[in-house]
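Field reference: sequence -> structure
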Amino acid sequence: MLPFLLLASRAEDAAAEDEYAAYLRYGGLEPQELHRIRLEAAPMPSLDFSRYSGVIVGGSPFTSSDPPAEKTAVQHRVERELSGLLDELVARDFPFLGACYGVGTLGRHQGAVIDRTYGEPLGGVEIELTDAGLADPLLEGMPQSFPAFTGHKEACTVLPPHAVLLARSAACPVHMFRIRKNLYATQFHPELDVEGLITRIDIYRHAGYFPPESAEELMDKARQYTVTEPMKILRNFVARYAA
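Structure field:
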């Protein structure tokens, strides 16, 4: 099998390693089957997509809709690199799954409106699949509604007309969409379980997602959820596109 490629941008080693382990675990992959590039650490190398089954973009502390003057040089570089990457991936309709940050990157690339209108606090939300979502092969075997973990400052307010809406929540009208046949983005995290969320709450307690003093309360709330359905997306992605 050709490996999948994970493009990551979490600067904190603990968060980066936990994310990578989650994609391995829930994708049913071995380390040699999931190559990782940490974009925050160095410029993206030249990529030969004939060597990969598909591309995954993980979550990120970057917020694509921030004013340009507020973005760091690293964020500007990562955004340029991902935009150039998507030029080729979209043209080829190459298998792509962007989790959380994927909405900002794939959405903006395709002309969506990405802003802070529909941000959601860190924690569990109920996701509802649309009729198109229920029929999509990447969501095969999933119920119409299920809990997932999320936490985002920005979201998609207006999808481009050629995108297919697959999922939403009560507070966020776009939680998953598809471009062409093989390019997907989710606002919720398909790789995130309870322990993973607790790890991120601890790591990002001073990152502006929530008041630092509420971290323990958020951890307690996370433990009240049973989140198992979103991970099927990763298994379906791997099963569908493994080459």
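Note: The radius of gyration is 16 Å.
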